[in-house]
């Protein structure tokens, strides 16, 4: 980032608390490590990577993120791979913190990140987030390229002159320049309601890990 010459304000930097750093003290240490390794003055978004470690560890990690946000180290905080039961648990903990610290003292779930695509819609989680104004980021939106030949995609590929990857954006990842260009070239078309409906498969087919089902 430093070599790019871009101003800090034009870069959005996200970091995550890994499963091995769950808990209040471990998360505080992880946050400090992030700043030492990146040299940044602040992090735009800090997420809890997965809901592992048990309730006490999850709550401790959240409290550490809230403190980092209040200290100006982090702009926004959120979660990743939380199931609805984890989200309900966190919402209750936020209310508990607010009862002690006053309104806003429990932090706010600004962003949630999950594997989401037509073969894993997660309507329960998405609905939970939309009801509360939580931004949903989708990783593996192109299913790691495993579904490019799906019949449901082909009519839209032909109609809009796009590749299958360009129909499903949020958090694509690539090291290939041409594909990076494709990922950015998605603002000149919009799927109709009927086309969106045609992509509802009703399947539950993760292509990655699925911590949302964790019950610890």
Descriptive report:
The protein starts with 13 loop residues before the first strand and ends in an 18-residue tail after the last helix. Strand 3, helix 3 (84-101) and strand 4 form a beta-alpha-beta unit. The chain is of the alpha/beta class and 216 residues long. It has helices at 24-38, 55-70, 84-101, 123-132, 154-160, 177-184, 193-198, and strands at 14-17, 43-48, 74-80, 111-115, 135-139. The protein has a five-stranded parallel sheet with strand order 1-2-3-4-5. The chain contains seven helices and five strands; from the N terminus they run βαβαβαβαβααα.
List keywords for this structure.
single chain; 216 residues; alpha/beta; five-stranded parallel sheet; 7 helices; 5 strands
pLDDT average, as an integer? 83
Q: Would you list the SSEs in sequence order as H and E?
A: EHEHEHEHEHHH
- Poorly predicted regions are 162-169, 171-176, 178-187
What Rg, in angstroms, do the CA atoms define? 19 Å
The secondary structure category is alpha/beta
Number of continuous helical runs = 7
Major beta sheet summary: 5 strands, parallel
